[in-house]
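Repro:
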Amino acid sequence: MKRVVTIFGLILGTLLGGNGIYMARLCYTNPDFQGNDVLGYAVMVVVFSFTFFGIKNYRDKDLGGNITFGQAFKTGALIALVGSTIYVVVWLFCYYLFLSDFIDQYSLHVLREATREGATAAELADKTKEMADFKEMYKNPLFVVLITYAEVLPVGLIVALVSSFILKRNSGLAVKN
């Protein structure tokens, strides 16, 4: 299982990290960039599909085609954890070494989107305070780690859960025709 978790976790983490860098870069290079949460989560689900393939690989190659729900979920959760950890490390590296003004850029992005969506002056003032509070919290490295994990790990665990239901197969329960 260690081999499967490592290989699929590294692939997953590389894709998540690359996507994260690309998305952060958009805040700097494209002032008209408009976020799309549905598309963002869809991309994450597609990337986390490597969890499905990791569980399937482990079931078929290492376990002779049989895996319990528990084994499948453990494998998938570990793949998601490894991939998410790589994503967090990549983000910390990029943020602290290259993008230390990211929160300022992100705040501008959020305020531009609110303006585009027709926010009132009071709503913009509230959003400005919210972003200032977020910037203050982001000064704490533990908060940065936790919020970065919170961006991706829940999606990975949901994909692992669904994949485990789909891929579980016990030889004692198999029906032969």
